[in-house]
């Protein structure tokens, strides 16, 4: 068990570490490079990764319906648990709650799922990623924006290459269509390249860890995975999971806050510096919580 966890975790955090060291060596020049890197990843590689995972012959959406319901439970329970914590700690709930609900199932979750469960696990994580993104771009944006953004306007955010690629893959899975191998393989190769690039970019972002707002960051780093696990256990009490699906849900539940939370907070000026602390300290704490989640998932 320990050997398998190490074999999964070390490559993931190894690539993150390379990105962090590179950013330290390059200094301020890395920020311009990261902009180009993120554009390539968000507009080409990540959409193709999501498309190829869902459109793969071995992925069957009907088998993952309980898992999608479980992901909804994790997101909902995380938000419900985080709200009283924010009130008790004196945090603005609009700052604290969304990062607890919407985790890093993109940059970190997809590579971990691929290493732990192979192509089937990657497809399942992409499906949960879709659920998370749909809620983040609708409910999450409305929470952060104090309800000022109409539902129709917030849903326009879904018209991104990432969501289009995911939607196209979902359509292929629902219809049972499959591309010929000569056409599918270039998409898959480009998508697979995005896995390492997402981790590398996450490592680069860690140079911006701000400990001035360390209190809210540390609280968030603990609450996010624990509330997620509570949601997963509640889902298990209500739904029927096989061993692989339960492991995938636990892995989803312990992931740290998503980087996208900071971007949304910055757009709507909802204490972005505190959200950045929650996100970055939470991702640092994943060094402890992800192995714990894998131990529960693979048991």
Q: Roughly what fraction of the amino acids lie in strands?
A: under 5%
Number-wise, the strands total 0
Ends apart, CA distance between termini: 8 Å
Rg over alpha carbons: 18 Å
Any guess at the CATH architecture?
Up-down Bundle
Which residues form runs of ≥5 with pLDDT under 50?
Answer: none
Description of the structure:
It is a single chain. With 299 residues, this protein is mostly helical. The chain has one domain (2-298): Up-down Bundle (Na+/H+ antiporter like fold), CATH 1.20.1530.20. Helices cover 80% and strands 0% of the residues. The protein has helices at 2-26, 29-55, 65-89, 93-101, 109-144, 151-155, 161-175, 181-205, 214-238, 243-253, 260-267, 272-298. Helix 3 (65-89) packs across helix 5, helix 5 (109-144) crosses helix 10 (243-253) and helix 9 packs antiparallel against helix 10 (243-253). The chain is globular, with a radius of gyration of 18 Å. 47% of the residues are buried.
């Amino acid at each position: 068990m320990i050997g398998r966890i190490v074999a999964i975790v070390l490559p993931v955090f190894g690539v993150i570490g390379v990105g962090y060291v590179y950013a330290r060596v390059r200094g301020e020049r890395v920020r311009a490079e990261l902009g180009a890197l993120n554009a390539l990843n968000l507009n080409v590689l990540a959409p193709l990764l999501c498309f190829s995972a869902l459109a793969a012959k071995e992925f069957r959406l009907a088998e993952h319906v309980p898992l999608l319901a479980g992901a909804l439970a994790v997101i909902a329970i995380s938000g419900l648990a985080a709200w009283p914590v924010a009130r008790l700690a004196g945090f603005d709930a609009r700052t604290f709650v969304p990062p607890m609900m919407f985790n890093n199932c993109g940059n970190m979750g997809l590579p971990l799922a691929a290493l732990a469960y192979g192509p089937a696990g990657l497809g399942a994580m992409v499906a949960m990623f879709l659920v998370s993104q749909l809620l983040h771009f609708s409910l999450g944006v409305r929470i952060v924006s104090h309800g000022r953004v109409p539902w129709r306007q917030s849903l326009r955010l879904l018209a991104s290459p990432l969501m289009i690629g995911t939607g196209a893959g979902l359509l292929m899975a629902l219809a049972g269509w499959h591309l010929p191998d000569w056409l599918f393989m270039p998409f898959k190769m480009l998508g697979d390249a995005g896995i390492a690039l997402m981790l590398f970019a996450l490592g680069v972002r860690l140079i911006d860890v701000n400990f001035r707002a360390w209190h809210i960051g540390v609280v968030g780093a603990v609450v996010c995975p624990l509330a997620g696990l509570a949601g997963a256990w509640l889902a298990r009490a209500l739904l029927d999971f096989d061993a692989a699906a339960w492991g995938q849900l636990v892995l989803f539940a312990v992931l740290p806050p998503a980087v996208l939370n900071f971007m949304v907070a910055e757009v709507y000026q909802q204490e972005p510096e505190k959200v950045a602390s929650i996100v970055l300290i939470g991702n640092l704490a994943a060094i402890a919580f992800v192995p714990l989640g894998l131990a529960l998932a693979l048991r």
